[in-house]
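Session log. Operator J.P. requested a structure for one protein chain; no other inputs attached. Running the standard single-chain path with token output.
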Amino acid sequence: MTGQWARRPGAAGARPPQLDTFAALEQPGAERRASGALPRETNQMRAYTPETITDAVIEQMSTTSDPRMKQVMECAIKHLHAFAREVNLTPAEWIKGIEFMTKVGQMCTPARQEFILLSDTVGLSALVNIMHDKTKVEEATSASLLGPFFRENTPQFAPGEQIAKRADGAEIVLFGRVLSAKGEPLPGAQVTVWQTAADGRYDIQTDASTMDCRGVFTTDAGGNYLVRTVRPLGYYIPLDGPVGGMVQAQGRHGMRPAHIHFLISAPGYRELTTALYIAGDTHLEDDVVFGASGDLVAEIKPADAGCPIQGLPSINFDFNLSRESMADKLTGRVGADPGQITAGDVKAEKPYGGAPPASAAAEAEKKGGILAGLFRGR
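Structure written below.
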């Protein structure tokens, strides 16, 4: 090196000019003087913490134009974040949850609604249904769950016709009246009925291209309905999917008590979604989807003198409908036909769920683990 900055023998502290520049940049405010940029300490981004991230998300969503969507999403975010903080959710648990919800979605088809089943088994369907039922403008028959096996376009039947393609000696009769809350008969009311077949499964579980054990009836001038069907069985919810896996991992039995679904409507009256639960079933108190209630328990009488079809066991039950309000026209049902939620044609698919306990136990013994003891002793 030559010139005035050349280091002479014995001279100390001689530095090239670029080194002095580097040293200057280490001083506070030097970046602005050297390059015109803002000092680093004044160019900081918003810092997120477990306590501040929730407010940041809600603030960003504050431009939502739909007021109800804004309210629902704000509450959902608050509770979801609070849940993660309360359980100290780990990354591994977070991704497991993502995997679970993905599998639930993948399991859904026009013949199977795994998300409704999930909602049912965690009590969310029952909660929404109970809250909705309390909005009736007058006292009437209690609502129950629509469930994941409801289907639109159910065939029409004449009063007293059999809705089961195979009765197999287990026939029963359902009869009674559809009335207003004041007890007035409602002629022309539509009564839709659906239930499990004699094997304990719904038609949509075995062959979605056909309909069985379901039908639509119309009340007569006195509000009377009359249905011929088979005795329903208690059944296992589908245990072959992610929801069934969750239920088994929790050590729950996965059983629903025997019941028959009803969807009843009449002009000017609030649509009634309900069910009759068969007296004496061992799972009335611990229904896996929390749908059974005491006021909807019905007894099958072996010989009721009032039954229009003699010689068969029967259930006699009257339903009362509340007058319809403007709000009722906007709220909808707690449930839907799976084919209306998942686009596509309903076609024959591989049967699912409802395996008889004996065969399920045999399969469980092969697999071992939590399945091995699920059906043992039943």
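Operator note: Residues 67-87 form the longest helix (21 residues).
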